[in-house]
Amino acid sequence: MLPRSARLARLSRSVTFSACHRLHSKSLSDEENLKLFGKCNNPNGHGHNYKARLLIPVLVSLQIDPVSGMVMNLTDLKEYMQEAIMEPLDHKNLDKDVPHFAEVVSTTENIAVFIWENLQRFLPLGILYKVKVYETEQNVVVYKGEETVVE
Questions:
Q1: C-alpha distances in angstroms, 96 versus 88, 101, 149?
Q2: SS3 state at 86
Q3: What are phi and psi of 121, to 5 degrees?
Q4: 61 occurs within a structural domain
Q5: Is 72 domain-assigned?
Q6: Is 6 a member of any domain?
């Protein structure tokens, strides 16, 4: 059995936000956008109830604190998620209200990257393991930061 000071744990927290968007690339013609994105290219947009789940992994720096009994204070994590996710994204038109998406197509993949980058401003360096964004129960994106593709 590990001594109490060496016990490690994973911490996960989720938030749900509602937003609308239109999948549309400025690099493509209207016809190409319609062909690529179908009904999601509707000029009036469409909405989702997204769920973002964060995972803070097992790391030496994230041992369960023997005094507090926590890996990280959940009140702090809740505040970070409020500032990094809820304030910029909840009840917004992603393409019109979030400056980042003025030039970036608001796909779930890019939303996951946006959340990751925003959270990095609040969390201690290196502790965020992955961001999982559910656009629907069937469409889920997992982003783990910059990863290199080996060819």
A1: 12, 8, 32
A2: helix
A3: -70, -20
A4: yes
A5: yes
A6: no
Domain CATH number, residue 76: 3.30.479.10
Relative to beta strand 46-56, strand 11-21 is: antiparallel
Q: Range of 102's domain? A: 11-20+48-143
pLDDT digits (tens, 9 = 90+) for 84-142: 999 999 999 999 999 999 999 999 999 999 999 999 998 887 788 889 999 998 999 99
- For the four alpha carbons of 119, 120, 124 and 127, in that order, the dihedral sign comes to positive
- The rounded distance, in Å, linking the Cα atoms of 50 and 79 is 18
- In the β-sheet with 11-21, what is the strand arrangement from edge to edge? 92-93, 11-21, 46-56, 130-134, 140-143
The structure's pTM equals 0.84
Active site residues: 40, 91, 135
